[in-house]
Amino acid sequence: MDTFLGALVQGVLQGGVYALVVLGVIVVAKATKVINLAYGGILLVLTYLLWWLVDSMGLPLPVGLVIVLAAGVLVGFGIERLLMRPLMGRPEMDMITFLMTLVVGFTVMQGIAILAFGGVPQVMPRMFPEGNLNFAGVNFTYTSLFCFATAVAMFLAFVAYFRYSKNGLAMRCVSDDMIVSQSLGISVKRICSYAWAVGAVSAAVGGVLIGSMYAVDTNTGSFAMMRALPVLLLAGLDSLPGGFVGALLVGLAESFAGAYIDPHVGGFRELLPFILMLVILLVLPNGLFGKKAIRRI
Questions:
Q1: Domain presence at residue 1
Q2: How far is CA 14 from the centre of its chain?
Q3: How far apart are CA 198 and CA 124, in angstroms?
Q4: How far apart are CA 258 and CA 242, in angstroms?
Q5: Residue 212: which domain range?
Q6: Is 293 among the domain residues?
Q7: How far apart are CA 262 and CA 70, in angstroms?
Q8: What is the reported pLDDT for 296?
């Protein structure tokens, strides 16, 4: 029973962080129809940047966080303006943008992380209280609890932004139909820039939380993407609440696999995200909450 409760609690706590990680991918996908494979690389560079600002430069942690969030906004705007906007309207745009984000994330950003910060494992500055908590016989750290609370709060803040702010409503309109949005006076290019900026800010916060739980190294971006993609496929590209539910399901699946299968089949937990992606693509190609495309002939 203790093993079950421990896996349940740990899965929920991990799933909350995964929800924030996948948020940035969903935002860009909804507004621009681009699957942002650069997300992991952006997260990696911004996480290393925070470590460098606080540990090497000696800046206070709050100052470092503000600088990293501002850098995330600039990175998002820069990628959209310099790399993605020139591709809009081109034939086979989906494939070109897919390859562009792949190259940016796994080559350019990872190269920047290695050249600028060395790419060696680093321990992030402590942001949350040390120690463990015991709940119903289950032990978990203050760090995992505060990371979960921060991720959920940020996720709810982003959802509220999309539902009630002017720019958030414009993003939802653009995600439904870019042409109609333009006819209504909405600047599609500006909204796409905002979507990339929000996605990069989400990457910054997600990287900070992941870095608080694990050491930061060149695999951190890949780790984030290998959790984000199964959640994205499970939730579908259209639903932010679905992203949260999908993240909890993936976190629980990973936690239970680690508790019950890894002792007998070592490394299965690391293989699980790939298995989930294959199963979801075969069984639920539109995800649990995705919209089914209807084409009239």
A1: no
A2: 13
A3: 23
A4: 24
A5: 14-125+142-283
A6: no
A7: 40
A8: 46
Residue 29 resides in a domain = yes
By the 8 A CB rule, do 222 and 210 touch? no
Q: Retrieve residue 46's tokens.
A: 């911004």
Question: CA-to-CA distance for 123 and 113, rounded, in angstroms?
Answer: 15
Q: Are 285 and 279 in contact (CB under 8 A)?
A: no
With tokens 């920047």, the residue in question is 112
Question: Is residue 8 in a domain?
Answer: no
What is the pTM for the complete model shown?
A: 0.86
Find out whether 221 and 208 touch, Cβ atoms under 8 Å.
no
Report the domain count for the chain.
1
* pLDDT at residue 81 greater than cutoff 80: yes
* Residue-wise DSSP of the chain: -HHHHHHHHHHHHHHHHHHHHHHHHHHHHHHH----TTHHHHHHHHHHHHHIIIIIS---HHHHHHHHHHHHHHHHHHHIIIIIGGGTT-TTHHHHHHHHHHHIIIIIIHHHHHHHH-S--BPPPP-S--SEEEETTEEEEHHHHHHHHHHHHHHHHHHHHHHHSHHHHHHHHHHH-HHHHHHTT--HHHHHHHHHHHHHHHHHHHHHHHHHHS-B-TTHHHHHHHHHHHHHHHH-SS-HHHHHHHHHHHHHHHHHIIIIITTTSTTHHHHHHHHHHHHHHHH-TTTTTPPPP----
What is the sign, positive or negative, of the torsion defined by CA atoms of 205, 209, 215, 219? negative
Q: 142-157: per-residue pLDDT in tens?
A: 888 888 888 888 888 8
Distance CA 60, CA 65 (A): 9
Parallel, antiparallel, or unpaired: how do β-strands 138-141 and 132-135 relate?
antiparallel
Q: Per residue in 106-132, pLDDT tens?
A: 889 989 998 988 878 888 887 777 778
**Long-range contacts of 132-138, Cβ-Cβ distance < 8 Å, separation of 24 or more:** 135/9, 136/5, 137/2, 137/5, 138/2, 138/5, 138/6, 138/9
Give dist(CA 175, CA 149) in Å, integer. Answer: 29
